[in-house]
Each structure stands twice: as structure tokens, then as C-alpha cells.
Write a structure and sequence with these properties.
With about 375 residues, the chain is of the alpha/beta class. The protein is about 35% helix and about 20% strand. It contains 13 helices and 17 strands. The strands form four sheets. The protein has a seven-stranded mixed sheet, with helices on both faces. Helix 4 packs across helix 10. The two termini are about 35 Å apart. The structure holds pyridoxal-5'-phosphate. The site of pyridoxal-5'-phosphate has 15 residues, from helix 5. Pyridoxal-5'-phosphate binds next to helix 5.
């Protein structure tokens, strides 16, 4: 049996498996067992901002693995304390941090903190939003596809059209604990927010006494051309959820917390693996590399280069090219699945975002040659006679 057959036979069945097994990565390249190279424009759904097998992250993990892997947060630790000090410098005004292990857990924590802190129960999220798959985060997620079959979800959530200030204004009341928003919707189709929308969300929350939670799980750590996408708009949320590339690929999530969030006393929340020294050591190495290599600056420049080239593709099936930095969506007038397959046949791995959007989330270390290779392949598949 090959790996595909084994995983299809023994896996739970919740993932659509590709007929492509990957055994190694380097920078923006992935390799199968025969050594064939694939250009990775998925980054494991936005995790590998630093590329695969980054030497500094690999070294930090190896060193920490033979020092101390696990330690519950009740016991302070050198790596965790140092990472906390680093995390609270990332967004001025967010001066505390809660560590967890994934994106959905970061959202789950932020939702709980909002209820604990405000004593209110309601949440306002956006249509097309994706915030994760555990019950709280799933309740903030909009698409029926993720919700069907597991309802009832957590009560108290409503969804408003994205980028519509009036609708948000009407939905937030004195019962709203928090508004939760992505600055650029990822899974929902790569839709950037209007700057005025995020700024209005801040104002509306302040006026109504609600907290503003910004989900940067996909857009964080340089991806959009700033450390966090919300920093493009000069807005400070009350909580910022992050995960994915925080620890260079080692599972880790975090909530950065502002001063309006309080009543977080021992026992109100927690998680066994949260802030474990292995993830923290990886996080320290990853954040140092993101800053030293100016990955945010690289994402801004490479993203502008890529979107410019993509907009020059003369194809009747492209509806729109949009994005921020290296979080790029190519909306097609048709279903995207056959084009993803055609790209994979040309050794390029990309993602969908819904039925018609082709999503590109390459490692931020991708080279200009590799970006050109992507553009040539995309031009090829999107302008083919039978496309
Ligand atoms: C914006 C956003 N929020 C939350 C999540 C959930 O993260 P995780 O899959 O680590 O639970 C994702 C995952 O894609 C995401 O893109």
C-alpha cells in the first residue's frame, strides 16, 4: 500500500486526500519520495511563512527537544517568559498573552475572555468569516458547509455582511461581548477589509462597550506586508488571535490581550500544552527570523510583484485578482478545482477559497524566479484552449 491508500484506509475520513505524498521540504519547495520538486503556494494553509526546514527554527527545536519539551504553565520557564516579553512588543497596547496550540483554540479563548470580561453573552461576526472548527469558533464561522450536521452551536452569534459599516452599527448592542473580524477574509475568498470598516468596527465597539477581536490566524506574521494586517489600518484591537506561522510550523496559537480585558483569574481558562517550552523555543526562533529577514517587507514587495503579473494575464475566466502582500486570491468565473489540478500537474501546489477562488499563500521566502514560474504556469492553465 502507498501512503495515500494507508491514510485513506486508516484516517478518520475528514480530509479530501491528494494523490501526492510529500516527504521533505526546503524553502518554498516540497518533495515527494522520488525527489520530484513541487512549488509550495499553500504553506500548509499559511503556516510556513518562513519556508520549510528553516535552519534557525530547526536548530532551536533540536536544542530545546534535548533540554525540556513539556512544562505546564504553572511553572515559569526561560523560553516561555522570553517569548511572552517578545510577543507583547509586537502590537503596542496588547500587553499580555495567552498561549495555546492552534488557531481555533486562540479564537475559543478570546470568545471566553470576552464573556468573562464584559459579563455579556452576544457576539457579532461577519458573513463569509472563518474562525475555526471547535464549537465556539465554529459558531463565529459563517459557511454552512462547516456547521451542517453538528448543530446546535453556541447561542448568541449573529453574522453581518463584511465591509458594511451600517450593518455592523445596527448589530452591535449593549449586550454584545465582542465583534470578531478577519482583516482579510482567507477561507471565505480572500477579501480584504476596507480600512474604514476596521476603523469603524473599533469606534462602534468603543461606543457600545463591546470588545474588538481581530483574527490574524491566516494573515499574521508578515503575510500581508506588516507583522499583522490590522497594523495597515492603525487600529488596535482588544484581542488579537494568531497561530499558524507563529512557531515556524510547530503547533502553537496565542491571544494578545489589551487592557480592557480583565477578570482573567487562575482557573478561568487553560490548556495542558499551552506555552510548552518546545513551541516557545520554536516561536522565539521564528519571530527572530521573521524580523531579521524582514519577511513583512518581502511579502509587501513580492505580493505587489505577483499581483501585478497576475493582473496582466489575459484570460476571459479571471474575474478579479485581489489580496494583501502574499495572501492572494484569483477569482475565476468558473469552478477552481480543475485549475488546481492542472497546476499540480505542472508541479505547483495552490489552494482554493470557496468554489471559485484560487488562493496563493506561498512561503514569504519564495524567490522571484519561483514567482515567475508560478505566473507562467497560471498563464498556461488559465489561457489554455479548453479552459
Ligand atoms: C482566519 C482563521 N481563523 C481560524 C482558523 C483556525 O485555525 P486552526 O486550523 O489552527 O484551528 C483558520 C484556519 O485556517 C483561519 O484561517
Amino acid at each position: 500500500m502507498d501512503f495515500y491508500e494507508i491514510e485513506t484506509k486508516y484516517g478518520a475520513g475528514v480530509y479530501a486526500k491528494q494523490h501526492l505524498s510529500i516527504v521533505r521540504g526546503q524553502g518554498a519547495s516540497l518533495f515527494d519520495a522520488d525527489g520530484n520538486e513541487y512549488l509550495d503556494c499553500t504553506s500548509g494553509h499559511g503556516v510556513a511563512n518562513l519556508g520549510h526546514a528553516h535552519p534557525k527554527v530547526a536548530e532551536a527545536i533540536a536544542k530545546q527537544a534535548s533540554t525540556l519539551i513539556t512544562l505546564f504553565e504553572s511553572y515559569p520557564n526561560d523560553k516561555r517568559a522570553t517569548l511572552m516579553q517578545k510577543m507583547v512588543t509586537l502590537v503596542p497596547g496588547l500587553e499580555r498573552v495567552f498561549f495555546c496550540n492552534s488557531g481555533t483554540e486562540a479564537v475559543e479563548a478570546a470568545l471566553k475572555f470576552a464573556r468573562i470580561s464584559t459579563g455579556r453573552t452576544k457576539f457579532v461576526a461577519a458573513m463569509r468569516a472563518f474562525h475555526g472548527r471547535t464549537f465556539g469558533a465554529l459558531s463565529a464561522t459563517f459557511n454552512k458547509r462547516y456547521r451542517q450536521g453538528v448543530e446546535p452551536l453556541v447561542p448568541g452569534f449573529s453574522h453581518v455582511p463584511y465591509n458594511n459599516i451600517e450593518a455592523l452599527e445596527n448589530a452591535v448592542t449593549d449586550k454584545t461581548a465582542a465583534v470578531i473580524l478577519e482583516v482579510i477574509q482567507g477561507e471565505g475568498g480572500v477579501y480584504p477589509a476596507d480600512p474604514e470598516y476596521i476603523q469603524a468596527a473599533r469606534r462602534i465597539c468603543d461606543e457600545k462597550g463591546a470588545l474588538l477581536i481581530i483574527d490574524e490566524i491566516q494573515s499574521g506574521f508578515g503575510r500581508t506586508g506588516m507583522m499583522f494586517a490590522v497594523q495597515h489600518f492603525d487600529v488596535t484591537p482588544d484581542m488579537l488571535c494568531c497561530a499558524k506561522s507563529l512557531a515556524g510550523g510547530v503547533p502553537m496559537g496565542a491571544v494578545l490581550i489589551g487592557e480592557k480585558v480583565d477578570n482573567l483569574t487562575p482557573g478561568t481558562h487553560g490548556t495542558t500544552f499551552g506555552g510548552n517550552p518546545l513551541s516557545c523555543a520554536a516561536g522565539l526562533a521564528a519571530l527572530a527570523a521573521i524580523e531579521e529577514e524582514d519577511l513583512a517587507g518581502q511579502a509587501a514587495e513580492k505580493g505587489a510583484y505577483l499581483m501585478d503579473k497576475l493582473r496582466q494575464i489575459d484570460s476571459p475566466i479571471i474575474r478579479e485578482v485581489r489580496g494583501m502582500g502574499l495572501m492572494v486570491g484569483v477569482e475565476l468565473k468558473q469552478k477552481v478545482a480543475p485549475y488546481l489540478k492542472a497546476l499540480q500537474d505542472r508541479n505547483i501546489l495552490a489552494l482554493n477559497a470557496g468554489m471559485t477562488v484560487l488562493r496563493l499563500l506561498p512561503p514569504l521566502v519564495i524567490s522571484y524566479e519561483q514567482l515567475d514560474r508560478l505566473v507562467v504556469a497560471l498563464t498556461d492553465v488559465l489561457t489554455a484552449e479548453d479552459s
